[in-house]
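Entry — protein

Goal — fold tokens:
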Amino acid sequence: MTADLSQIVKAYDVRGVVPDQWGEELAELFGAAFVRVTGADGIVVGHDMRPSSPGLADAFARGAARLGADVTLIGLCSTDQLYFASGQLSLPGAMFTASHNPAQYNGIKMCRAGAAPVGQDTGLAEIRGLVEQWSEQGAPEAAAQPGTVTERDTLADYAAYLKSLVDLTTIRPLKVVVDAGNGMGGHTVPTVLDGLPLDVVPMYFELDGTFPNHEANPLDPKNIVDLQARVRAEGADLGLAFDGDADRCFVVDEQGEPVSPSAITALVAARELAKEPGGTVIHNLITSWSVPEVVRENGGTPVRTRVGHSFIKEEMAKTGAIFGGEHSAHYYFKDFWNADTGMLAALHVLAALGGQDGPLSELVSSYDRYFGSGEINSTVADQAARMAAVKASYADQDGITIDELDGLTVTGHDWWFNLRASNTEPLLRLNVESDDPVTTQWITQHVLGMVRATG
């Protein structure tokens, strides 16, 4: 019987409930299909701390080796550590993780050699087609010469590479609280930060894919409450929070206040432009106005893209950009094969803070110039109709511009908002920003009134 992959193959990855929606049998077919589509004679495979991850990764490796590819298993790792291995070893890679999703979920993030993304338009649709075909007709014939499966530890090399990109040896001593959320940050942070002038206060470093303390999604404010309290209690200089697969990093200042990922994007952009003057920096269209302003002030060229890592990475490759940032706290570096790594962004923040005497709140204030609403989700029955109603209310107004690069972006003299439809849920996502909090609140309420109108 053909497997129904429509619920688990997403735009950029595979993700679903184990064993209800998929398991090791399908993982083995995904491994074979990955090799067939990429044409690889060698791949690298890693996994997170979820209970189902080791078995899924091993099954994927069996499928890949059966078709003749030599498999390097790197075991427990963060997603950006898998990207590092893919880049350093010049091999396609597969990471078994469901990021911040609950414990019963698992998934696969795949990339070509050099951490180039695999998504619907870059191989994932073909992989899905083969898995569906083979699940009905039987697994493909094994290669005459099956591949080998070997193990390799890349953590020390990953840590050394990151530290070669950002010099922290001369910073003033800092006290930093790190909340790993029982995710892969608990595996990577001790090695990456070892030997630096840092007093690290660990929180939830025990690897536990059941997430006993809180969901490993720092984008939701309730999941950083513990970190905020601990930073204040410890009198720390800052706090860092990683998501489940530790590819995203969120920052709180010495007062326990969240630092906008847009401000972090601007700060890191300024540092990267100091290293490579005149470079291009990519930002998605819901980052703050601060980002392109800071890029221009530092002699760089800002380029605006749609939301989503495939668009960022594609634009980085096309423009030769040195850095890219999203308001979801994904940070992309030319020096890291255009892939995203929250850990490298964290090192930049530590270097910037430790290289001067003021507190983090003061340092980031120059990069955080506007008042944002944050992303507000609304469940709606008809996304297109609500979007059309909002667009119509602003059409043909003097001084207002509308663009539809990604959803609906409406810009006034001192404010803007973006309204986008979710690809996977019946939601509209609203982001608003202006140069004063009253305007931000007014625009937010006005647009939400139309989005959530009944009848």
The first helix runs from residue 24 to 38. The first strand starts at residue 14 and ends at 17. The chain has four domains: 14-153, 157-247, 261-343, 371-451.
